[in-house]
Amino acid sequence: VSTMNVKTSSRGEEEASGMRNETPGESGCLGEAKRRQVIRVAYVIAALDLTFLFMQMGVMPYLAKSLGLDSVGFGYLQTIFGVLQLMGGYIFGRFADQFGARAALILSCVSGSVFFLLMSLSTSIPLLFLSRLPGVFMHGIPGAQKVIIDMTTSSQRAGALGKLGFCFGVGIITGSVLGGVLSTKFGIYVPTYVGLVGSLINTLIAMVCIPSQTKPESDHHMTENSTSQSGSLFSIREILRLMKFPGVMEVFIVKVFAGLPIGLFMIMFSIISMDFFGLEAVESGYLMSYVGVLQMVVQGLVVGKLSSHCTEMTLLRLSVFIFAGVGLGMALMRTVWHYCVIVVPLVFAFSMLATITDSILTKAVPSSDTGAMLGICATVQPLTRTVGPTIGGVLYKQFGVSSFGYLQLMVNLGLFVYLLKSKIPLEEMKS
């Protein structure tokens, strides 16, 4: 017993010493107060970026309609944006690894400025389609995630990433309301002008408040060495190399398929809210605000608390299990009030799955590849937005709303059994 106590005490001292050494090392020369300040700046940039994004999403259907674009053409417009985001996610992550988190954030903000500038000049359908092109590098959330990962210890990562959900809630509520008010009172192009000015302000904030080097010096040298060997910004070989690290492929498969059915449902939600729930536009907006508030509470307060008390694999299994229960509830729901109840565990499971999988995957690869891994993770939603309208439309038309729930139930029950039986080798990579 005394030998075990000595070993435990020794291990505890080593871990405490490691944490003492890790705190300054994780941020290079930056102190604890400076690191927290930089993380707060990343949250502000993410919240503003999401606000402007949701602001244009609310205005875009009306702008497209005013230019004479029908529903089919609008679908093509959305698909093009999804494909561009899908293509640019991994390239943006590799850019962040090679040139730093600040450079990546600046690239995202500048791309947002060009995006809103082209939208403000869109007086014809070809110009409107052209305005989608800068979307290939508009990845404010992955850029903020990269800053947070570089600035936090491994034990702090899940909680810090979870707080980005609070920024998402702020963005969806503020952006939706602001876009509607500005377009109604001052004209349909005014939100694009606000987005342009806001993106320029975001660029200045990133240039002034984010340090040029957020990684430890040892990681910086590793990045330079790996960059010289890996070649171009886009490489299929590099993607396959990252997927071969222990546990990465398994967790990424869970990340993609666990949220796919609910992703299809959310893509079709505007139609479902009108046809199935019988909601007006204002009522639908209130419902989206309700979801945004829930996400703020869950990711801002709940995810961080749970991540400090439970293992990440336990939380991953929990989120998948709750997703299965949500599927059963969706299959049985008949009114909008049923949905208001179901959306509480839905938001919890969705937020937990996104945060925990991002945390696990970025820990499983070398620190010089965290940006590339975040870029791969960022392709999941654009992929859903690209294939979702077709698959979701077929499911809704042929089988009704309950089909999304049954698909959610079957997929996540299968994933839950898989997570229980398989021993996923999760190893945290060290510099």
Overall tally of structural domains: 2
Query: Structural class of the secondary elements?
Result: mainly alpha
CATH architecture of the largest domain: Up-down Bundle
CATH homologous superfamily identity of the largest domain: MFS general substrate transporter like domains
Strand content: under 5%
Approximate helicity band: over 70%
User: Helical stretch count?
Assistant: 20
Q: Low-confidence spans: pLDDT under 50, at least 5 residues?
A: 1-29, 220-229
- Radius of gyration in whole Å, from Cα? 22 Å
The CATH topology label of the largest domain is Growth Hormone, Chain: A
Order of helices and strands: HHHHHHHHHHHHHHHHHHHH
Task: Specify the CATH class of the largest domain.
Answer: Mainly Alpha
User: Any idea what the shape is?
Assistant: globular
Describe this structure in a few short sentences.
It is a multi-pass membrane protein. Helices cover 81% and strands 0% of the residues. With 431 residues, the chain is mainly alpha-helical.
What does this structure look like?
It is globular, with a radius of gyration of 22 Å. It has two domains: 181 residues, MFS general substrate transporter like domains (Growth Hormone, Chain: A, Up-down Bundle), CATH 1.20.1250.20; 195 residues, MFS general substrate transporter like domains (Growth Hormone, Chain: A). Helix 7 runs antiparallel to helix 15 and helix 13 crosses helix 19. It is mainly α and 431 residues long. It has 20 helices and no strands. The N terminus is likely disordered.
